[in-house]
Design goal:
Length: about 160
């Protein structure tokens, strides 16, 4: 818990020294890699449990961060939590939810066709699934840009108003 508090304090105290390029690069790599991994799990037989696990980890970490902010800053934490969540984190969770649902559906289709020895024309299925991948990547690029450039500015503004 103390490490989490120190990490949060470090982020807030170093907003003026934030390297936007490195932050954007890190956010893009993390989010796009996450989307590609979940998407890839949808075309595999073992995709269902791994997709559920990755989705749980992602949503748990968002919930933990919000709880930490509220615990540390109480009433001010409501504002900080709102800035942290809206809109980029909520959009990311929505996209990861949709992507996870499709991943589980396609993984189930792949598994059932494999075990039942059925031949299924996967071309229309994969075409729709590719569309979901492209849309997911575009949205996480936009949310990464927002989270890198706008969210820290809002935090700075709220911190200045709160002093």
């Amino acid at each position: 818990r103390n490490i989490a508090y120190l990490s949060l304090e470090n982020f807030i105290n170093n907003l003026d020294n934030l390297s936007y390029v490195m932050s954007l690069k890190s956010s893009l790599i993390t989010n796009i890699l996450y989307v590609i991994i979940i998407w890839s799990l949808g075309i595999s037989i073992i995709g269902i449990p791994l997709t559920l696990f990755l989705y749980f980890i992602r949503t748990f970490s968002v919930g933990f961060t919000i709880s930490l902010i509220l615990s540390k800053y109480s009433i001010k934490g409501l504002i900080y939590g709102f800035i942290y969540l809206f809109p980029h984190t909520i959009l990311n969770i929505f996209i990861f939810s949709i992507l996870s649902i499709y991943s589980i559906i396609y993984s189930f289709k792949t598994s059932s066709s494999f075990f039942k020895k059925e031949v299924i024309d996967f071309k229309p299925v994969i075409n729709k699934y590719k569309y979901i991948l492209v849309l997911s990547i575009l949205i996480v690029i936009l949310t990464s840009l927002y989270g890198t450039y706008i969210m820290p500015l809002l935090f700075k503004l709220v911190l200045k108003l709160g002093k």
